[in-house]
């Protein structure tokens, strides 16, 4: 696996990635409580999301591809506005999604490293991450990057016939 991971490329996302990114995300919509979206998206419906993550600035989209010949998208990481009010402008919410068959191979680590490296020059103070419980892999990834637990919203989302808790983590930038 380590040699395979060395061939994974991480780069900013672009409009050409939209169909693959939408397909990857829709897996989580349909199959998991990790996102609280409940209906799959079309690429056109996801276009505003993609366009809200330009190549520079505090709101980024990083994409991991390869090592297969088609450079398939293995995952992505984003930093997005934490809340819409102006005083929250130096805070971002971060997230990582990895293709179902690419989990546990270090792709999430590569994505977060690239994302936080890209954000290092931005005027940001804190990053936040909400993790639907249980999700030990995501909890470990966030701890590895210095996120610390700050609290839990109990039964805040309803999906698949049950309520889910979301644990919140923060990281100083």
Automatic annotation (TrEMBL):
CDD domains in the cross-refs: NAT_SF
InterPro entries in the cross-refs: Acyl_CoA_acyltransferase (IPR016181), GNAT_dom (IPR000182)
Q: Lineage from the top down?
A: Bacteria, Bacillati, Actinomycetota, Actinomycetes, Kitasatosporales
Residue intervals of the N-acetyltransferase domain: 8-173
Q: Which UniProt keywords apply?
A: Acyltransferase, Transferase
Q: Which Pfam families match?
A: Acetyltransf_4
Query: Under which name does UniProt file this protein?
Result: GNAT family N-acetyltransferase
């Amino acid at each position: 696996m380590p040699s395979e991971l060395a061939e994974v490329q991480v780069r900013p996302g672009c409009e050409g990635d939209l169909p693959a990114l939408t397909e990857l995300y829709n897996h989580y919509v349909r199959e998991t409580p990790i996102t609280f979206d409940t209906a799959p998206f079309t690429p056109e419906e996801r276009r505003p999301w993609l366009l809200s993550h330009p190549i520079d600035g505090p709101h980024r989209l990083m994409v991991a591809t390869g090592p297969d010949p088609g450079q398939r998208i293995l995952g992505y990481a984003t930093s997005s506005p934490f809340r819409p009010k102006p005083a929250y402008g130096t805070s971002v919410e971060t997230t990582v999604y990895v293709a179902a068959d690419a989990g546990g191979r270090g792709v999430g680590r590569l994505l977060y490293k690239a994302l936080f490296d890209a954000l290092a020059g931005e005027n940001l103070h804190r990053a936040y991450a909400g993790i639907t419980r249980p999700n030990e892999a995501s909890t470990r990834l966030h701890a590895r990057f210095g996120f610390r637990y700050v609290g839990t919203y109990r039964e805040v989302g309803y999906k698949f016939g049950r309520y889910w808790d979301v644990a919140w983590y923060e990281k100083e930038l």
